[in-house]
C-alpha cells in the first residue's frame, strides 16, 4: 500500500517534478541556511543530557534530535509529532508480508495517513516558510499536482527520520567499540564528515531496497527479464572487499565518500544533505564535550521489510557510558585537592541506558 503512494516508486517524468518541488529546501544552500540553528540544537541536547546523568540514549538522545529537526523543518504542528516513530515503524511493516506484524501495524499506518489527510485539508496548519508549506506553494504554482502533496508529505514524515536515528546510534556503538577512532575524531574534529561516511559505509541504516527492471538486461552474467524484482543490497556493496580494503574494520581515516548507503542515481536519497547536517552537528557537539564512550549490551530490531540471518542495522536497545571532558577536568582538580577516589570516579562520567523507541530499520528518502 505505502509503496504505491511513495516517491520511492515513481519513475520519470513525475519523479523529476516531485524531487524539484523541494530541491532548494534540501540543497546545500538550504542546509547552510539552517546550519547554525541545527548546531545550536545539537549543543543544547548534549549539554542537557550531561546535566541529567543517567538517561536513555535513544529515547532521550538519538531519537530526540531527528524528530525535533524534521518536525520543525516540515513545519508540523505540535499535534502528532510524538507519533512519528510509531508511524515510521508501521510504514515499513506494511511493506512486507501480511503476517501478524503486518496486521498489528496496519491500523497505525492508516492513522499516519489520516494525520496527513488532516494536514492536507488545511495546509495553513503547517508553519509558514517550512518545507511542508513549500509543497503546497509548489502545487499552487503548478510545479506539481495538488494530489501529489499527500504522498510527498508521507515520504518525508515516515522515511526521513529512522535512518538518521539509526546512524547516530550506530555512531555511539562504533566509537564505543573503537576508542582510538573516537580520540582521533576529538583531536581532528574537521574529520566529522569523513567519519560519518565511514559510519554509513560499515553500518548502512538501509540494508537494501527493492527495484524492478524496466527492460530486459544482464547483470554480472545473470539474465534479468523485464519486470523482474531485484533487491539492491547497499550494506553488501559498502563492504565489498573488491572496492574496500579490510571492509569490516572501522576507520574514520578511510575515504568512504563513494558509499551507497544513500542509494545511487535517480533515486538517491533526497534528504541526504539533511541527514549529514544532523549527524555532523551531533558528532561535533559530542567531540567538544565527551572524552570517551563505553558501550554495553545491545538488542537488534527486525521489521517486515528486511530479513537476514545476521542482525539488521537497527538497535532496539544499547547501553552506553559517556565520559565527559568537562567533568573529567573537574575530577582531576578534585584529586589534586585530595578528594576521595570514589568521589572523583563518580564525577567522571554519566551513564546511558539506551533503548530505542519502537521503530524499524530506516530507509532513505528516494
Description:
This protein is mainly alpha-helical. It has a single domain (13-331), classed as Orthogonal Bundle (Cytochrome p450). The protein is built from 15 helices and 7 strands. The strands form 3 sheets. A 3-stranded antiparallel beta sheet has the order 5-6-7. A two-stranded antiparallel ribbon has the order 1-4. A two-stranded antiparallel ribbon has the order 2-3. The two termini are 17 Å apart.
Secondary-structure element sequence?
A: HHHHHHHHHHHEEEEHHEEHHE
The CATH C-level name is Mainly Alpha
Whole-number total of structural domains: 1
- Give the uncertain stretches in residue-range form: 1-5, 306-313, 326-366
Write the CATH homologous superfamily.
Cytochrome P450
Average pLDDT, to the nearest integer? 78
Beta-strand level of the residues, as a percent range? 5-15%
Number of helices: 15
CATH topology: Cytochrome p450
Please give the alpha-carbon distance between the first and last residues.
Answer: 17 Å
Rg calculated over all Cα atoms: 21 Å
The main β sheet shows up as: 3 strands, antiparallel
Global outline: globular
CATH architecture annotation? Orthogonal Bundle
Strands side by side in the biggest sheet: 5-6-7
Keywords:
366 residues; mainly alpha; Cytochrome p450; 7 strands; 48% helix; 11% strand; disordered N terminus; disordered C terminus
Note the topology.
Blueprint: H1 14-20, H2 28-52, H3 58-62, H4 64-74, H5 84-93, H6 100-121, H7 131-140, H8 149-158, H9 162-177, H10 179-187, H11 192-202, E1 209-212, E2 217-219, E3 222-224, E4 229-232, H12 234-238, H13 272-289, E5 290-300, E6 315-324, H14 325-336, H15 341-346, E7 349-355
Antiparallel strand pairs: 1-4, 2-3, 5-6, 6-7
